[in-house]
Amino acid sequence: MPQEGEQSLPLVRSLNCHVPIRALFRNLSPRVVRPLWIDYRGEPRAYVDLQPGTGREMATFVGHPWMFRDAISDEPLKVNGKELFLPKPAEGRNADINLPVYSLKDRALQVIRRLVRAEDYRRLEIARCLHEELEDQPSVLKDLHRMNQRVEQHLLERIQSQEE
To answer: What is the DSSP letter of 119?
Structure first.
């Protein structure tokens, strides 16, 4: 338990595990993919980018989470249909990386971010809330924070249901 004034470690982080595994990262998307290992403190650590249609065998460990991002836009990508890849001894070797299914609005925001300079977003004749969404750039740190909150909420709900 952290002492007063100390910050606790995030829940989404690598565990101290010594069970090695050879994972196969396969970029099935049309984007350049940046693999990110989530270290023991919950910090993302970037690895060498994967070009579209390529793969790489990666030495990692059971209990070490990985995220995958678009290397240019930092948009999150899906791995085996999920946000995180957590290697498992038996079945968890392949990490198939794909684009998520974007809503029309999210895809439009991506295209506008690519075509319009950030300082010009407010000049676009669009709803004010869309200006704010354009300015809210994708961020791996924000996504990790959101995932940690979700895991914490799930754990609290399980604890409460056991107490009842």
So the answer is: G
